[in-house]
Amino acid sequence: MHFISEQRLDDGVLEREFTLGEIPGILWTPVSAPASAPVPLILLGHPPLGLRRMYPRLVARALDSAADGFATATIELPGSGDRPRWPVVEQARSDLRRAMEAGDPVNDEIVDALILPLAVPEWQAALDALLLLPEIGGPVGYSGGVISIGIRLAVVEPRICAAVLFAGSFVPRAMFEQARQVTIPLHVLLQWDDEGNDRQAALDLFDAFGSEEKSLHAHLGGHTGVPQFAGDAAARFFTRHLM
Hints:
The chain has 243 residues and is an alpha/beta fold. The chain has one domain (2-82, 120-242): Alpha/Beta hydrolase fold, catalytic domain (Rossmann fold), CATH 3.40.50. The protein contains eight helices and nine strands. The chain has helices spanning 51-67, 87-102, 108-115, 120-130, 147-156, 173-179, 199-208, 228-242, and strands at residues 2-8, 13-20, 23-30, 39-44, 71-75, 136-144, 160-166, 186-191, 214-219. The protein has a nine-stranded mixed β-sheet with strand order 1-2-3-5-4-6-7-8-9, with helices on both faces. The model has no long low-confidence stretch (mean pLDDT 89).
């Protein structure tokens, strides 16, 4: 991991951009996180729209988490931002736009091509490097979308002990079986009127999770209308399980 820039944000948070091989990422840590008192880490998931486009939303989440005593980090997803384009993913995005513009159902082939290439091993490699930093000590949580990444990480990554998942992205059928293997505590957010989300599929996915502790928090409104108090509840969830 190589840090390529550093700045101190107004809220007393240190923001550092890094590269891990060809993977760009950003790490936010509270200034009050010295090596003598390492803090828990939350991995910030996001849709494959590019870190620059997602930055305002990501940094807002990072600042809130820092105020609660957490470090946060995120990486650029394959085929997005400045990373090389993947033809299969680009074709899936075009097929998705055509289907939605025509009001047609989004078939399984499009969903699989769009979601399955998003590389969970890259998140694990980032986690390996982040946990070597003296100011980060774990435990580790995952927060956000794409929900399929959160599911897969919860299954294969034992260092993640709690997750806040956003039920607002397409889910390959294979993920429903994997959801049954998830056993960590879950806090799931669902926007009830999300125009791009299959509400029933989101409810079925929640039902499939194997966790003994799981809660579903549904709110009226579209995809970007998550109320502030929903974030407050998610923060309390992480404080219970990571502190």
